[in-house]
Amino acid sequence: MVESGAGLGQIFLEQLIEYTVLALEIIITIIIIIIVGITLAHLFKIVLSKLRNKEEKGQRQEYVGQLVRHMLRGLLISLDFLVAADLLKSILVPTVPELTTLAIIVAIRIVLSWSLSKEIESHMTQKDVL
Question: What is the total count of domains within the chain?
């Protein structure tokens, strides 16, 4: 009787983790779509204002820089959450191929996070120079 209760607990925990990972991935996908949509909308606004020549070039460049920084920060946070979701997935099936796949995915995302953070820093230094 105790074994079946422990088995049910393990099944419940596995299902809970699977649904949590799925929910995280869906939420992160929605966040990424929203970030990209907002960025495209703002870029469209910049193109329209450029056609109307309402803003100065310096103002536009500063606005684009802020826009890029906000987008990169959002993507960086999303990548961090995706790594967390992959870690939760690996808890379920800790086989060697699964852990190897996880290690490769985490390494790629770490490189992406590092490059995004460097891009943010470069935009910050460009802003400081201007």
Answer: 1
- Between CA 24 and CA 79 the distance in angstroms is 11
**DSSP per position, 51-98:** HHT-S-HHHHHHHHHHHHHHHHHHHHHHHHHHHHHHHHHHHH---HHH
Residues 84, 88, 90, 91: what is their CA dihedral angle, to the nearest 10 degrees?
140
Distance of alpha carbon 86 from alpha carbon 78, whole angstroms: 12
State the residue range of the domain holding 89.
Answer: 2-129
Our measurement of the distance from residue 38's CA atom to the centroid of its chain's CA atoms, rounded to an integer in Å, reads 15
- Residue in this structure with the two tokens 């992160």, named with its chain if needed: 28
CB 95 within 8 A of CB 121: no
Contact of 63 with 44, CB cutoff 8 Å: no
| Mean pLDDT for the stretch of residues 93-119 | 81
This model's pTM is above 0.85: no
CA angle 89, 119, 125 (to 5 degrees): 145
